[in-house]
Amino acid sequence: MSSPRSCDTFVVLPPLTKDNLVIFGKNSDRPQNEVQEVICIRDRARNIKLKCTYITIDESSEPINSVILSKPAWMWGAEMGANDKNVVIGNEAVWTSNNEGEGDARQKRLLGMDLVRLGLERGNSAESALNVITNLLEKHGQGGPCSEFDDSHFYHNSFLIADAKEAWVLETSGKLWAAEKITSGYRNISNGLTIMTKFDKYSRGLFVKAEATGFWNGQDEFDFMKCFSSGGDEKRQQEGERLLREGTALRSFGVKDMFNVLRHKESGICRGCEDTFPTQGSQVSALSFDGLSVHWFTATPDPSISYFKPFVFTPNSHVSPYTESPNEPKREHDLYKLHAKCQAKENSEVVSKILREMEDSCLFEIEEFLSNYDPDNTSLEELDNLMKDCVDTEVKLYE
Fold it and tell me: Which GO molecular function terms does the record list (predicted)?
């Protein structure tokens, strides 16, 4: 398999967070000029069969969740997203040594991004989303080109799945997998396997298959990473862990702290538009067990020069037509085009400063709203167009 490049996903849990929220964040680093759209999907059309990016699978017999997705516009699946049950998921490409037969990622199966979306559509908690993903992985496998124009870009996947109570790290090699439960502190994943001897769930027949294929001798303590890893970006993994360690020192880690992690250029976590593999989209989610969860998306490349815009699931919430890609070859949605045009101008730094001020003001207003939120008496109607209004303001600024 070709070496996967970039992407980082993070989660911070109580007692290290502000207001006992679970804070999730992800940068999606993808091929240059690949547009990432942000869309909300409710009550999509359902048939007996479901066409994913490459293969067709059985549709769920159960109701499916409403989801907001940040996704490469050409594929069915998503790099990251959230559902209306307070579940968030992000995935990473990983190096693996298990590349034959069921582990051959060149074969068109389910993409890791398909599994992200399926987990969100069908999972009502982090653990149930984990079960959805692993059941589908064991049944259908994973694989297929992960780029629209580069058939050599394929890989296995790791996932970070969280809800308002806990998080799970799921790491895979072909149809084999191990998962670790996280209930406090922080965790991050980049592009390498990290689960070693401590895991809470694993695939059926994992030890037998690992021994039969020669990845494990059957005698030493079983180490998932040692068995299946064939490399990874240790520098970014370590830098991400350092940023979380430093950011949680005061035990009040919040949404803005995650913004700052995703904007960190020196670590390589944030990649500019000029990079061959830039950060094409970013997400931060603040998950509340007994209040409202808020999901922030850029819908534009490079979070250091982008505006994180909030979204809350309400009965009538909307995203924006400006972040939905048209069905044309370049798939550039209006916000993407305006953002790119602005960055090419001499005054782009001035615009970026205004965007950051808008973001700070929006964050303050959201926190004020949440501090006064009463589930029994507070109307959510004013949040219906929250993200749409923010996008409209950004578009006007660019124009």
Answer: cysteine-type exopeptidase activity; dipeptidase activity
